[in-house]
Amino acid sequence: MTKTVAIVTGASQGIGRAAAMRLAQDFSALVLVARDRTKLEETAAAVRAGGSEALVIDLDLTEPTAAAMVVERTLSAFGRIDALLNIAGAVPALDVFQVTDEQWDVGLELKLHGARRLTIQAWGALRASKGSVVFMSGNAAVTPKTAAAAVGAINACIEALAKAFAERGIVDDVQINCVSPGASITGRRMALLERAATAKGISVEAAKQDFLGQAGIARFGTAEEIADLMAFVISPAAHWMTGTVLRLDGGEVRSV
Ligand SMILES: NC(=O)c1ccc[n+]([C@@H]2O[C@H](COP(=O)([O-])OP(=O)(O)OC[C@H]3O[C@@H](n4cnc5c(N)ncnc54)[C@H](OP(=O)(O)O)[C@@H]3O)[C@@H](O)[C@H]2O)c1
Fold first, then answer.
1. What is the pLDDT of residues 129-160, one digit of tens each?
2. Could you tell me which InterPro entries the record lists for this protein (predicted)?
3. Would you state the pLDDT for residue 94?
4. Where in the chain is the domain with CATH 3.40.50.720?
5. Is 188 in the pocket of ligand 1 (CB under 6 A)?
6. How far apart are the CA of 131 and the centre of ligand 1, in A?
7. What is the full DSSP assignment across 179-217?
8. What pTM was estimated for this model as a whole?
9. Whose C-alpha lies nearest to ligand 1, atom 44?
10. Among the residues of the chain, which ranges form H helices?
11. How far is the centre of ligand 1, averaged over its atoms, from the C-alpha of 90 (Å)?
12. Atom 41 of ligand 1 has which residue's CA nearest to it?
């Protein structure tokens, strides 16, 4: 049987971990990338229990040399790359008048340049396998807020970048899409809710209800729901779908 190989960044927790666990059903090997080795090993154990091989690569994707290292280690372990899920992201959610140049750079370096460099490094292998790439955007790309300016701006950049790769992907037979989740319960989301609760002097539960009321949605999403969508996007059933942004947000974005 031909081995099929997927690289998942941000696999140490949250949506990335859920994606790796879900893809263990469809791929014979998963490459798990993030900084925290202990958490990555936990994901790897779950992936192996799901029937797939797992390779842990702990590094900082903001380092310019990291992307080449990920691709080199993946190809030397498994010889091919069928899917790349660029999920890692940690853009500071701060007010546009307060966020510093350094904080903008941190967000851009990881989410935009980390994903861009990895996609370029993996392109040859993806072309050889007629593979798939998923970029991770977010609702803020189309609903930018003063209170989290970099999140919206960088997600909008990601969507534009994905379109640029998709145009070449039509020629090279590499499928490129963006998945755009609404508010989903992960470590990052909980940290944002805890910060809102502290700022308003209310409980985290009350902050959650506040958020749902303002967003006009019935509940938060789960990392597993986002993972299921990504698994579908890179499945053979969706191979003709490319250059799109797929939203999964409980109906939060009301615009056409
Ligand atoms: N949760 C939501 O509501 C939501 C909504 C819209 C979009 N998103 C997007 O979905 C993605 C995942 O979010 P999440 O909620 O699952 O966040 P999370 O739980 O905070 O996970 C973020 C992941 O990124 C990794 N990461 C952070 N800095 C890194 C670095 N310098 N190098 C390598 N890996 C790094 C983290 O691992 P280490 O710390 O181990 O490095 C972690 O695995 C992000 O791109 C986020 O913007 C999330």
1. 999 999 999 999 999 999 999 999 999 999 99
2. NAD(P)-bd_dom_sf, SDR_fam
3. 94
4. 5-183+222-248
5. yes
6. 23
7. EEE-SEESHHHHHHHHHHHHHHT--HHHHHHHHHHHHT-
8. 0.98
9. 89
10. 14-23, 37-49, 66-78, 101-107, 115-129, 149-172, 187-200, 204-215, 223-233
11. 5
12. 35
Could you tell me if 158 and 115 are in contact, meaning their C-beta atoms sit under 8 angstroms apart? Answer: yes
Is the predicted pLDDT of residue 231 greater than 70, yes or no? yes
| Amino acid 141: pLDDT | 97
CATH class of the 5-183+222-248 domain in this structure: alpha beta
Please write the tens of the pLDDT for every residue from 5-43: 999 999 999 999 999 999 999 999 999 999 999 999 999
**107 CB within 6 A, ligand 1:** no
> Token pair of 44, please?
């790897």
| Rg, C-alpha atoms of the chain | 18
The DSSP call for residue 138 is -
- Enumerate residues 6+ apart whose C-beta is below 8 A from 177: 132, 133, 134, 135, 162, 166, 233, 241, 242, 243, 244, 245, 246
- Identify which of 105, 186, 246, 253 to mutate to test ligand 1's pocket (most ligand atoms within 8 A of the CB): 186
Percentage of the chain exceeding pLDDT 90: 98
Structure tokens at 70: 């990920």
Residue 3's pLDDT is what? 78
